[in-house]
Amino acid sequence: QVQLVESGGGSVQAGGSLRLSCAASGYTSTSYCMGWFRQAPGKEREGVARISTGAGVTYYADSVKGRFTISRDKANNTLYLQMNSLEPEDTAMYYCASSSRVSCLRLDVKIVESAYERWGQGTQVTVSS
Question: What angle do CA 26, 32, 35 make, to 5 degrees?
């Protein structure tokens, strides 16, 4: 099935940028959506952004709109998250995930974690002032 491996995390000063990558196997034909989630210590995991694997329709959490950009390279089975203007509040473990459920395509609700079945191991992003 789908396997995901994140990379690109690290430490950066506030206002800086990072680009996360997620190497995927099989997601192009087996999943409807690919998404990025994050979880800070003691907090619930939240959806950051997602993209439909077919049409490339994107959706972002309000907290990252205008700063983060999700994209994918279908030929290379790679998902990206370009993060600009990073803030200390962005500090978290970032996870790549895939969904084979059509419900993930909905745009009238926030990104729902339960729709995503395959998860990467996570990559740490730390933003300092």
Answer: 85
Tell me how far CA of residue 76 lies from CA of 85, 96, 115, in angstroms: 27, 16, 24
Which parts of the chain register pLDDT below 50?
none
Q: CA nearest 3: which of 22, 19, 20? A: 22
CB count within 10 Å of CB 72 equals 20
Residue 122 and residue 41 in contact, taking contact as beta carbons nearer than 8 Å:
no
Closest to 69 in 3D by CA, of 53, 50, 54: 50
| Whole-number Å distance between alpha carbons of 30 and 25 | 10
Q: Characterize 32-63 residue by residue with b for buried, 16 or more Cβ atoms within 10 angstroms of its Cβ, and e for exposed.
A: bbbbbbbeeeeeebebbbbbbbeeeeebbbee
Radius of gyration of the chain (CA): 13
**pLDDT tens, residue by residue, 37-52:** 999 999 999 999 999 9
Q: d(Cα 18, Cα 128) in Å, to the nearest integer?
A: 13
* DSSP element (H, E) containing 27: helix 27-30
